[in-house]
Amino acid sequence: MNALPVQKDSQTVPAAYDSKIEGNVIFTRLDAAMNWMRKNSLWPMPMGLACCAIELMATASARFDIARFGAEVMRFSPRQCDVMIVAGTVTYKMALAVKRIYDQMPEPKWVIAMGACASSGGMYRSYAVLQGIDQLLPVDVYVSGCPPRPEALIAGLMKLQEKIAGERSFTAQKRGLVDKLEALT
Amino acid sequence: MTGAELLNSLGARLGAKIGERIEFRGETTFLIDRADIREVAQLCKDERFDYLLDISSVDNFGTEPRFEVVYELYSLTLSLHLRVKLRVSEEDPTVDTVSDIWPTANWHEREIWDMMGLRFNNHPDLRRILMWEGYPYFPLRKEFPLEGLPSDMPDVAFTSAAPMEGGPFVTQPSTATTKDREPRARGPI
Fold first, then answer.
1. Contact criterion met (CB < 8 Å) for A127 and B157
2. So what's the ipTM on this one?
3. Left (φ > 0), alpha (ψ -120 to 50) or beta: where does B176 sit?
4. CA distance A35 to A161
5. What is the spatial distance between Cα B127 and Cα A119, in angstroms, rounded to a whole number?
């Protein structure tokens, strides 16, 4: 490929095909680009509370390798996380601590309820166990199983990716501005 | 000294303090009076029962005295078990602590206070151990429902009654398939 001649005078740049630039330019919606980046770099908050956390660790390990989906960066600091994976039995004693950690995560954030206990209390119909973390947090994906196998958690993660891919966050955020501009014209 | 000899000499030294001595399948149980627990415990400790395995409590709801406290003692030198039981009434649900004799009793007594609501006199730190301070019930008492009761401690914890959906989740002992045996709500049995 020949290098283009250096343009001395920017006023006289011909409107020609520039293979250096145009091959690397893609037109898309901002939402689509943002969603693509978000869904492929979901950093989990590992809220491991019971035996589901063992399967969560297996999911992160070499055989199942959640890094294939961009979700390998388990952060134990909620400030750096995108998705909270509630893995295990949420007792009433722990419930408000889970809520507090969720509240510390920056937006946008999602929640996966992993396993029967986190989804519904599971076999613990008891005075001590919260009957599903969805009583406190907005859950995006429920993963069944007791505990779910790593494949199931990965399937849940992929469901969440599909959900994120369909979001209209930027459109929704700028909806007010667009309406205002339309009202002016 | 063999285990049986030790138990006999211990029984002789305790004398009238033993209300009843129960032998069952090689296990010895001394039933004692609530007021004597510290004296009996100290003597057992001196007689080489150096290890307190567990303290548990029983709620014999409907009988009087209602509660029972069970001390499981073990001698590491003689490989010997001894069980000491005492009964506690509902009107005065207190027992003297043994946490200065066996330090491990500290948390066991806290658990009994937390779950059964029996207080231990002179305990150095009698707080709840599993539930939180301010939880208003004692969950292992028989009158406490399996599904729990609603409560609320703002900024600490809340509880609500669990939906039982027709019965406790129980396994069915049988040779049937896993699907038939697994724990699930089956309604009143």
1. no
2. 0.80
3. beta
4. 9
5. 32
- Cβ of A125 within 8 Å of Cβ of B131? The answer is no
B-chain residues within 8 Å CB-CB of A129? 162
Q: What is the pLDDT along chain A (185 residues), one digit of tens a residue?
A: 555 555 555 566 566 667 777 777 778 888 899 999 999 999 999 999 999 999 999 999 999 999 999 998 998 899 999 999 999 999 999 999 999 999 999 988 999 999 999 999 888 888 999 999 999 999 999 999 999 999 999 999 999 999 999 988 888 888 888 888 888 87
What is the least distance, in Å, from the CA of A97 to any CA of chain B? 9
User: Do residues A157 and A66 touch, judged by C-beta distance below 8 A?
Assistant: yes
Start-to-end CA distance of chain B, whole Å, equals 51
Q: What is the DSSP string of B86-141?
A: EEE-SSS-EEE--TTTSTTHHHHHHHHHHHH--EEET-TT---SSSPTT----TTS
Between CA A139 and CA A113 the distance in angstroms is 6
The closest alpha carbon to A119, from A63, A69, A49, belongs to: A49
> Does A136 contact chain B (CB < 8 Å)?
no
Q: Tokens 């709500």 belong to which residue?
A: B185
